[in-house]
């Protein structure tokens, strides 16, 4: 069935065709088969052509999806208040991964500036040159900000990652009558992309056994994802934080393993976003759409623990924001000033409502040497991991 989605510009279509040719050529060089993780890596991050490394708008009303910082500055202000609370226990520094437009950094830093306690540095790890340029313009009034191409060897402070893990390349696996197969990408006789399965190798089978509870009991044809690259990121994060004191807050949509890999979710969670339309075809206009999957928070927590970190908490976005005081931040504007107050209240409602982002999005907090505030442990779900 052909997708009915908004028309792309001629320049965008040319860029997508170039990326399609690049991917197809690599598939031919690899004897006609490419792992889906590699396909996703190229579709999102191929230099100059991938979704996050090209020039297309990604966020906000003109982009493909909207994130919590884009919905309300009160999200970042609430995180700024929490950072002020944590700084006495660690370095007064912040690191953010995948900062998007720079809106979250702007709101966090604005809150810290208003309190008279700006961090000595705010590091942004950003691989997209286009997004980095946009962030530099947004944050031009904050000389504390510096950009990094990769993780430093050590860091002490507050780490922020909003919708970072879901954009990391993943492997698709499908249950067969005998074992598991890896679903990769090949070419049809007409040269278009198509899914092609092959037997999973020993490394992938071990990953499946570690990540998927009761994997062998799932029905034949069960399709899902495993997240080795995101797990590797968590281990790298743990290495970076292992010698200091820190708390890393990772917001994303996802589930604990036993909710993620239950028999009824037989087609996995892979999803694509194009111009605020969600669909399931990762081969549609490569480079012009986002490709994501839900996060297996159990696997992320286990990787952090294996790297020497502690899990401080796991909860819904709504519970965290309410316990962290977003209501107090909202009430800085009097409800009697309805023209100013009501839009802010409506935005906060989107962040915390179970029907919007409040329940779908979760927060995993890992770190070392920091006492996580007791009030933030209300409604904690770490036991579900």
What do you see in this structure?
The chain has 385 residues and is of the alpha/beta class. Helices cover 35% and strands 22% of the residues. The strands form three sheets. Strands 2, 3, 4, 5, 10, 14, 15 and 16 form an eight-stranded mixed beta sheet that branches. Strands 1, 6, 7, 8 and 9 form a five-stranded antiparallel beta sheet that branches. A hairpin with a 4-residue loop joins strand 6 (171-175) and strand 7 (180-187). The two termini are 38 Å apart.
Class per helix and strand makeup: alpha/beta
One letter per element, helices H and strands E, the order comes to HEHHHEHEHEEEEEHEHEHEEEEHEHHHE
The global form is globular
Q: How many H/I helices? A: 13
Count the E strands: 16
Main sheet makeup: 8 strands, mixed
Percentage of residues in strands: 15-25%
Q: Mean pLDDT, nearest integer? A: 94
**If you compute it from the alpha carbons, what radius of gyration comes out, rounded to the nearest whole angstrom?**
21 Å
